[in-house]
């Protein structure tokens, strides 16, 4: 007896449904096994091995607070030799690098015109002196005549006035002669300070104007650094504080000391100029660039190396070790400073003695398991 067609169709559908269920269950089982294997791999990968050099402890320490400073070196004593008289330069033999002494004659300006002026002024003074003598003799004669009653006292008064006028004219002429001598003396170019020639701006035979620059002299025995600081930083700077500088061209650091502080700010930038006297060191030159740190005080606080603080989140944090796992601890930064040449920063939020990962370890996820080498495990 033949089965109805609908029963045959229902049987086929049941077989297909059963096969689909079997395939679904098998697929889920395979996915679960793959997920477990992936989690096991991630757990294995999340384990980080640390050495002793990767971990530091939060501890209370004394920090040397410093300010970063930079600027160019300048000679404390320097001078520009200018022409105090106009004329042709003669006898200028000093060149860049030559040593000179204060008062040394460096060159001259052609004196022909100035010598003529001196002679002219002296002759005018002599003529005025002759007029004084004439007026004096006239006064003496009139005085005798008045005493004898031959002339009136009015004539004597006129003689007195003539003598006073002649004497004033003589004094003016003498002052003119002195001024001409001074102009003649100004034709001599002398070094105002000891030092070396840094610039020679004119050559022999050139005609220069009054106050034209001729030579620049610098004294390298005393150099200073001119550093610009913000108004807030300058408040903490005082005369006598010490600094360590790195100067281009020198392999060793150079010591410096705050000599003085400018009482006014620089227009525009509102910065304050601080002048540091630099320790005398062979090889220093005016204009060399220097940078370094200025010690402004000490502070005792819970601190960590600056490199341990991470800023790849909205708030700074450090990576600490808690029960063998990495934890992210948010911190508030305080005073900065140095300890044994390492940049340090005060941290608030991290407990005293907490173990913190250095920045060289890199960023790790919270919860990352860590293992410790024997050296790290025995680290105090």
TrEMBL record:
GO MF annotations, alphabetized: efflux transmembrane transporter activity
GO cellular component terms, semicolon-separated: efflux pump complex
Regions annotated as coiled coil: 111-138
Domain Multidrug resistance protein MdtA-like barrel-sandwich hybrid: 78-209
The entry's keywords: Coiled coil
Keyword Coiled coil: yes
Ligase as UniProt keyword: no
Pfam families: BSH_RND
PANTHER family (alphabetical): HLYD FAMILY OF SECRETION PROTEINS, MULTIDRUG RESISTANCE PROTEIN MDTA
Family that this chain belongs to: Belongs to the membrane fusion protein (MFP) (TC 8.A.1) family.
Name of the protein this chain belongs to: Efflux transporter periplasmic adaptor subunit
């Amino acid at each position: 007896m033949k089965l109805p067609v609908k029963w045959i169709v229902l049987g086929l559908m049941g077989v297909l449904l059963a096969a689909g269920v079997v395939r679904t269950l098998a697929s889920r089982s395979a996915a679960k096994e793959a997920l477990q294997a992936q989690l096991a791999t991630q757990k294995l990968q999340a384990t980080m091995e640390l050495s002793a050099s990767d971990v530091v402890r939060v501890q209370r320490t004394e920090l040397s607070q410093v300010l970063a400073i930079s600027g160019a070196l300048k000679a404390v004593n320097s001078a520009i030799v200018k022409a105090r008289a106009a004329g042709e330069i003669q006898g200028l033999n000093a060149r860049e690098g030559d040593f000179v002494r204060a008062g040394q004659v460096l060159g001259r300006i052609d004196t022909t015109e100035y010598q003529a002026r001196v002679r002219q002024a002296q002759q005018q003074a002599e003529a005025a002196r002759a007029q004084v003598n004439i007026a004096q003799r006239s006064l003496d004669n009139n005085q005798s005549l008045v005493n004898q009653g031959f002339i009136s006292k009015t004539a004597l008064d006129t003689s007195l006035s003539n003598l006073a006028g002649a004497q004033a004219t003589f004094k003016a002429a003498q002052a003119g002669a002195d001024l001409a001598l001074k102009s003649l003396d100004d034709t001599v170019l002398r070094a105002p300070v000891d030092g070396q020639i840094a610039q020679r701006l004119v050559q022999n035979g050139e005609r220069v104007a009054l106050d034209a620059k001729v030579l620049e002299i610098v004294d390298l025995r005393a150099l200073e650094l001119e550093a610009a600081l913000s108004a807030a930083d300058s408040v903490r700077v005082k005369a006598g504080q010490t600094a360590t500088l790195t100067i281009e061209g020198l392999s060793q650091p150079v010591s410096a000391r705050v000599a003085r502080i400018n009482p006014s700010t620089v227009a525009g930038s509102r910065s304050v100029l601080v002048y540091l006297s630099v320790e005398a060191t062979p090889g220093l030159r005016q204009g060399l660039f220097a940078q370094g740190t200025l010690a402004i005080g000490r502070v005792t606080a819970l601190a960590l190396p600056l490199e341990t603080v991470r800023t790849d989140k909205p708030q700074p944090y450090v990576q600490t070790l808690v029960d063998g796992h990495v934890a992210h601890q948010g911190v508030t930064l305080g005073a900065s400073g140095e300890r044994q040449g390492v940049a340090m920063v005060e941290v608030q939020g991290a407990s005293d003695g907490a173990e913190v990962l250095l920045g060289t370890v890199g960023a790790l996820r919270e919860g990352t398991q860590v293992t410790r080498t024997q050296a790290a495990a025995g680290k105090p």
